[in-house]
């Protein structure tokens, strides 16, 4: 089963609109064809409209880093999935460990967000991943499996086949301490096996699973060589144009 790789930068709460514009100008002519790889930037919501204008007629896609699960209403400070869809946002990252830890998002919230994103015609990138404590206790597969099952609850098989799951061990995020190739493969396969158990093998063969956590130009090729790793979700190494482009060299 061949799945198209998907490399997504997650800028987190970094860059001004002007810096984002400069970045897009610097990379846009060197992004490989969408036929080979999906290349995505997870932009802060404040300048997503400018990002969408900047990437017009390029191979770059734009993700939001979060959204709420209601379309409109009295939810001060939240970002509406309907508004993101009206801006033609392609993907929405949900369930990032920073959102779970700092903003107390639950598996149930993440599941509601996944439904709202599909309702609005966008594609979720759903993050999962265990803490160091859970990893060291040998409970990573069980913990991450439960996160994935809960996030996908009551979605259709077609929806699950089309979405992206990002396995990001919390202990590897922003620490420079990336998972070994074996751990990344084992965990991405475990994530796929949960999809197989819940939705069938055909769906599991289609869903794309990314590894994230201290991915850099120097180590991305070893992850991309794993049979169950279909891409990467990259924080720090996605911020500079040269480094972002170097992440895509594995396609050549
Ligand atoms: P780093 O690549 O900076 O470790 O961040 C990973 C991440 O959290 C992407 O969502």
From TrEMBL:
<dbReference type="GO" id="GO:0019563">
    <property type="term" value="P:glycerol catabolic process"/>
</dbReference>
<feature type="binding site">
    <location>
        <position position="174"/>
    </location>
    <ligand>
        <name>substrate</name>
    </ligand>
</feature>
<protein>
    <recommendedName>
        <fullName>Triosephosphate isomerase</fullName>
        <ecNumber>5.3.1.1</ecNumber>
    </recommendedName>
</protein>
<keyword id="KW-0963">Cytoplasm</keyword>
<feature type="binding site">
    <location>
        <begin position="10"/>
        <end position="12"/>
    </location>
    <ligand>
        <name>substrate</name>
    </ligand>
</feature>
<keyword id="KW-0324">Glycolysis</keyword>
<comment type="similarity">
    <text>Belongs to the triosephosphate isomerase family.</text>
</comment>
<feature type="active site" description="Electrophile">
    <location>
        <position position="96"/>
    </location>
</feature>
<dbReference type="GO" id="GO:0006096">
    <property type="term" value="P:glycolytic process"/>
</dbReference>
<dbReference type="GO" id="GO:0046166">
    <property type="term" value="P:glyceraldehyde-3-phosphate biosynthetic process"/>
</dbReference>
<keyword id="KW-0413">Isomerase</keyword>
<dbReference type="InterPro" id="IPR035990">
    <property type="entry name" value="TIM_sf"/>
</dbReference>
<dbReference type="GO" id="GO:0004807">
    <property type="term" value="F:triose-phosphate isomerase activity"/>
</dbReference>
<comment type="function">
    <text>Involved in the gluconeogenesis. Catalyzes stereospecifically the conversion of dihydroxyacetone phosphate (DHAP) to D-glyceraldehyde-3-phosphate (G3P).</text>
</comment>
<dbReference type="InterPro" id="IPR013785">
    <property type="entry name" value="Aldolase_TIM"/>
</dbReference>
<feature type="binding site">
    <location>
        <begin position="235"/>
        <end position="236"/>
    </location>
    <ligand>
        <name>substrate</name>
    </ligand>
</feature>
<dbReference type="GO" id="GO:0006094">
    <property type="term" value="P:gluconeogenesis"/>
</dbReference>
<comment type="pathway">
    <text>Carbohydrate degradation; glycolysis; D-glyceraldehyde 3-phosphate from glycerone phosphate: step 1/1.</text>
</comment>
<dbReference type="InterPro" id="IPR022896">
    <property type="entry name" value="TrioseP_Isoase_bac/euk"/>
</dbReference>
<comment type="pathway">
    <text>Carbohydrate biosynthesis; gluconeogenesis.</text>
</comment>
<comment type="subunit">
    <text>Homodimer.</text>
</comment>
<feature type="active site" description="Proton acceptor">
    <location>
        <position position="168"/>
    </location>
</feature>
<dbReference type="Pfam" id="PF00121">
    <property type="entry name" value="TIM"/>
</dbReference>
<dbReference type="InterPro" id="IPR000652">
    <property type="entry name" value="Triosephosphate_isomerase"/>
</dbReference>
<keyword id="KW-0312">Gluconeogenesis</keyword>
<dbReference type="GO" id="GO:0005829">
    <property type="term" value="C:cytosol"/>
</dbReference>
<feature type="binding site">
    <location>
        <position position="214"/>
    </location>
    <ligand>
        <name>substrate</name>
    </ligand>
</feature>
<dbReference type="InterPro" id="IPR020861">
    <property type="entry name" value="Triosephosphate_isomerase_AS"/>
</dbReference>
